[in-house]
Amino acid sequence: MAELPAMNFQQLRSVRETVRQGYNLTQVAEALHTSQPGVSRQIKELEDELGVELFVRAGRRLLGLTPPGQAMLPIVERLLQEAENLKRAGAEFADREHGLLTVAATHTQARYALPTAVRDFRLAHPGVTLHLQQGSPTQIAQQLLEGQADIGIATETLAEVPGLVTLPCYRWTHVVVVPAGHALAEEAAAGRTLTLARLAQFPLVTYEPGYAGRRKIDAAFAREGLAPEIALAAMDTDVIKTYVELGIGVGIIASVGYDEQRDSSLVALDARHLFAVNTTRVAVKRNAWLRGYAYAFIHTFAPSLTREVVERALCAEPGQDGGL
Predict the structure, then answer these.
(1) What is residue 123's three-state secondary structure?
(2) 253 vs 155: CA distance, rounded Å
(3) Residues 6+ apart with CB under 8 A from 160
């Protein structure tokens, strides 16, 4: 009997990517820069070596994972993660001050919270190439889980994603923004406290669901039995302010996104009493190896998050916070 081929990482990548691509082998082949028959062969060779079928088949089509496949997929993920960790560890010891760091963040974080940290990090680590990617919290989580980003920065949503370790960076609130001369601005100047009922009388311009604490905004109105009109929802704080300036509606934005000098045509109204406080969190993939400069970036952005604190969180069991 001929000896079966030894297990290799290409076989494991083929299995993982097949699941990620919804069992579409054409897309798997494109993602792995190989051919569809090559993907099929890699999967079949691994199944032969393991002695079980990993995928449910209908002819040549793959429909899903078999029970053995469901049990073994997490092991495949861990093996590939450790292989990536091994490469990163080697790079860390070979050259500590050169490499690539990819940070994924929402627009609000990238535009308003990160610039100072990016500047300071670049000054301290000139040999590191920094890639800054923007997306929704869901997209950021996916980029971290798939190894496309090293660090993610967004709101509490990241803490709900299995497979990620998240740590709190800073807390922030929302503000209401209106054009100068707006009725709400005049009422605030006269000493009247803004209420949700009064706010709901105007069309609103705010974030899309999933962005910048939108969940807290919706929850606040729901508790009061209010259903305000959302005239426009956007991912981008600057877009929201632009449409507020045009009179489309009253804006609700992250407080960090309002600059009195830059936004001189707008008036910001305190909304801390209306909406719950939000927490920006930094996230990394559980069990991932972080190079030294990744810890340095996290510490630059959130001084309370020292390397020791982050490492303790990475070592904590899922569901724990490493002491935070």
Answers:
(1) helix
(2) 14
(3) none
Give the whole-angstrom CA distance, residue 121 versus residue 11. Answer: 38
Please give the class, per CATH, of domain 174-276: alpha beta
* 9-82 matches 98-171+279-315 in fold: no
Q: pTM value?
A: 0.70
CA–CA separation, 8 and 236 (whole Å): 44
Domain covering 98-171+279-315 in this structure, CATH number:
3.40.190.10
Question: Which own/partner contact pairs does 125-130 have at CB distance under 8 Å and 24+ positions apart?
Answer: 125/97, 125/293, 125/296, 125/297, 127/97, 127/98, 127/99, 128/97, 128/98, 128/99, 128/100, 128/101, 128/293, 129/99, 129/100, 129/101, 130/101, 130/102, 130/103, 130/297
137, 210 in Cβ contact below 8 A?
A: yes
pLDDT (tens digit, 9 = 90+) per residue, 107-158? 999 999 999 999 999 999 999 999 999 999 999 999 999 889 999 999 878 8
pLDDT tens profile 202-213:
999 999 998 868
**CB 281, CB 167: distance < 8 Å:** yes
Q: Which two tokens mark 221?
A: 């109105």
Domain 9-82: which CATH class? mainly alpha
Contact 137, 106 (CB under 8 A): yes
Enumerate the domain spans of the chain: 9-82, 98-171+279-315, 174-276
